[in-house]
Amino acid sequence: MRRETDRFFRQLVAGMRNGVLAITRDGLVAEINGEAQRIFQLKRSSRSVGRHFSEVLAKHPDIVRVLHSAFDLSHLPNRAELRLKTTNKVIGYTLSHVKDERGRSSGVALFFKDLTKIEQLEERERLRDRLVALGEMAAAIAHEVKNPLAGIEVMAGVLKRQAAVVDSPDAQSLLNDIINEAKMANQIVHEALEFVRPIRLQVEHTAIADVLQTSIALAESKIPRRNIDLTVNVDEGLPPIQGDQHQLCQLFTNLLINAFEALEGKGRVDISAREGLHEEDPHAAGADGTPRTVIVTVTDDGPGVPRELRDRIFNAFFTTKPQGSGLGLAIVRKVVDAHDGRIDIQTGSSGTRFQVTLPVSGANDWFAPRSQGHLRSSTDD
Ligand SMILES: Nc1ncnc2c1ncn2[C@@H]1O[C@H](COP(=O)(O)OP(=O)(O)O)[C@@H](O)[C@H]1O
Ligand SMILES: [Mg+2]
Fold this sequence. Notes:
Strand content: 15-25%
Bound molecules: adenosine-5'-diphosphate, magnesium ion
Low-confidence stretches: 281-287, 364-381
CATH architecture of the largest domain: 2-Layer Sandwich
Number of strands: 12
Number of helices: 9
């Protein structure tokens, strides 16, 4: 019976999801479980039991120190934390004395848990808080700057009209410059605001064809298309998607502006929209629970993105243009993420293609059961 309980306790310790290390009064390892070996990165094959702890834990002088002092202390730390220097893991631990029947100390036990993940989560949380604070500040500044900028533009316009009356071409061209610069500054402020604002989607049934038409008009109003051929191919029967119309327009406008800018007034831009095939869908769960997607591609035959820059183009403030804000693609990524979509880029010396995949059913709704199959006609009811 005693042997059986013994075995039971051994198995109990072996299976625990906390690290357990026990040493005897003379410093020999009496017990070490699998989780402890994992956290200390000890080889499973190496026999630790029966050897001196300072030898077993030679790679972890910080733990050796803690264990050494444990014999001298009457009050042992409960819930302390420690970073293991060699592995950079953070552990939370409790130390306790092992006492014999007469209450004499016969050893020390260390119980611990790997806190690295929790620590990383907390770090991310802190970072998010900081970004929110930063975003609020940027939004406040941008907001304050907008009004004086609008003032400058209006007043320069008034002066320009007066300059026309007294017929002063020099003054007029200077004023034109002022107005253009103010417009550009305003555009940057606008983009910065768009970027820092946390996205709250106003989701509605959205027809991609409408979104693309609006985006083209917006892009053309910002960058003259000149000799760029533009073709648009939207599949018939494309289902409307659950999305934020305004944000989606922003997304495709930014892609189009980039394409126009890359072409510098000459070349081709193709826009296409179709329903996603299930095989291409990374979220596909299989047969009938498969969510539907709409895939929009924006392709240009411009110079492409150099290989060494490809990892960075989505970063905020990354730009290769003298007057660029570097926020266009950062906003694109943000809007795609908010819709639970994805964006892929293919680029080379013959051009660039951005492919945006959006779920038809909208963000956070991937696994909602579909009432109909994926028959095209079912979108009407
Ligand atoms: N269609 C494209 N063709 C070539 N390069 C592109 C294209 N789209 C984006 N890029 C590159 O990505 C960078 C970042 O784009 P973006 O975030 O929109 O900022 P910006 O347009 O203000 O530079 C651009 O400066 C450019 O170098
Ligand atoms: Mg851009």
